[in-house]
Specification:
Number of helices: 1
Low-confidence stretches: none
Shape: elongated
Radius of gyration: 23 Å
Length: 104
């Protein structure tokens, strides 16, 4: 009885998406005598779903062969993109330009 707190972890929610949250409370008859809450809409805050461990660094490059080798690690499994941009073009450069270079 009284105020309760439930922590849900390991979710695969998408940043900036809307979700409805429901809570079901059951009494002594377990699943047959409970009450379902009204939906509580929440928007997952923008944030970071992964972190570098270690941070990206150049491990080799060859202008003659037009190659660049990067090394980095990720805290959790996921996807990675990379882009090489001239320093004069980075003022408004961000994640969307890396992921969708031809749409930006």
């Amino acid at each position: 009885p009284g105020p309760q707190e439930l922590v849900i972890s390991g979710c695969a929610l998408t940043h900036e998406e809307l979700y409805d949250v429901y809570v079901y409370l059951s009494g002594p008859m377990q699943y047959t005598d409970g009450t379902l809450s009204a939906p509580k809409t929440l928007r997952v805050a923008p944030g970071e779903s992964n972190s570098f461990m270690p941070v990206p660094h150049v491990v080799g490059m060859s202008a003659k062969q037009k190659t660049l080798r990067l090394s980095f690690g990720a805290e959790v499994a996921g996807k990675a993109w990379a882009s090489v941009v001239h320093s004069s073009q980075t003022e408004d450069f961000g994640r969307l330009q890396v992921i969708f270079p031809h749409d930006a």
